[in-house]
TrEMBL record:
This is ABC transporter ATP-binding protein. Signal peptide: none annotated. Keywords: ATP-binding, Cell membrane, Membrane, Nucleotide-binding, Transport. It is found in: Cell membrane. InterPro entries: AAA+_ATPase, ABC_transporter-like_ATP-bd, ABC_transporter-like_CS, ABC_transporter_ATP-bind, P-loop_NTPase. It is a peripheral membrane protein. The keyword NAD does not apply.
Length: 249
């Protein structure tokens, strides 16, 4: 589903502050896989996500998504099938617009063929039903400016908005870093459910080792631009948080 081959990315090349953010990364992520990436600050996690999202280009190597070579494809041409959730719940939505209008904008961006967008009651019912499934009572706040909702509520809606249509790949870049523990847990549970429900291929970058143990089907550790651990299957499911701490010592 996602294949990175021989990916290198260096910032400030040729200058004293040159930094090799990614060193010859080879990574294959199968369709439906949920990969969690951990690693110390500056190890290259966000750079890797930026390359998959398309807002950075590699210096060397190729990126394939769903059989297409997207290495040189700009971000806006990938956004139909690649959605990204950031740390800041304020990113990705228009604060002054209502929740329903934000969903309309998101649907227009991906231009789903089967869905009549506009101001139709049908679209509103479709969105209300899906928001109700989040079990957060937000279906009663469709007309409220989305900026008046809490960070956790917004992050849950942004997630749903991103995956509802043609999205195939979900990139979660520390999506709960700005949330209180309860909201953080709720948002990750929702993400987990949406990934299964919509059969998405997902990458979660996190510094939270508990989340790294609890979520995902595969766990990768990065260090200085390299992948230094890559575990999946039974090894992933039986991993303990204490073992993970040892990876960092
Ligand atoms: N646009 C940029 N210009 C210059 N250097 C950059 C840029 N983006 C990232 N870097 C550098 O590349 C290295 C990898 O950064 P990256 O943001 O990918 O790390 P990270 O693992 O996501 O870190 P963190 O956990 O702190 O978010 C770091 O040394 C960083 O300073």
């Amino acid at each position: 589903m996602i294949t990175l081959s021989g990916i290198r990315k260096t910032f400030n090349a040729g200058k004293p502050n040159q930094i090799a953010a990614l060193n010859n990364i080879d990574l294959q992520i199968a369709a439906g896989e949920y990969v969690v990436i951990i690693g110390s600050n500056g190890s290259g996690k966000s750079t890797l996500l930026n390359l998959v999202a398309g807002n950075l280009r590699p210096d060397q190597g190729t990126i394939n998504i769903d059989g297409n070579n997207v290495t040189r494809l700009p971000e806006y041409n990938r956004s139909k099938w690649v959605a990204r959730i950031f740390q800041n719940p304020l990113l990705g939505t228009a604060s002054e617009l209502s929740t329903i209008d934000n969903f309309r904008l998101a649907a227009l961006r991906t231009q789903s063929k089967g869905l009549s967008i506009g101001k139709t009651a049908q679209f509103k019912d479709y969105v209300r039903e899906r928001i109700a499934a989040l079990n957060m009572g937000l279906e009663n706040k469709l007309e409220q400016p989305i900026g008046t909702l809490s960070g956790g509520q917004r992050q849950a809606l942004t997630l749903l908005m991103s995956v509802m249509d043609t999205c195939k790949v979900l990139l979660l870049d520390e999506p709960t870093a700005a949330l209180d523990p309860r909201s953080a847990e709720n948002v990750l549970k929702i993400a987990d459910e949406l990934i299964s429900q919509y059969k998405l291929t997902a990458i979660l970058v996190t510094h939270n080792l508990k989340d790294a143990v609890n979520y995902g089907s595969r766990l990768i550790q990065m260090d200085e631009g390299n992948i230094i651990k890559d575990i999946r299957g039974t090894e992933k499911y039986t991993l303990k948080q204490t073992q993970l701490y040892e990876w960092f010592t």
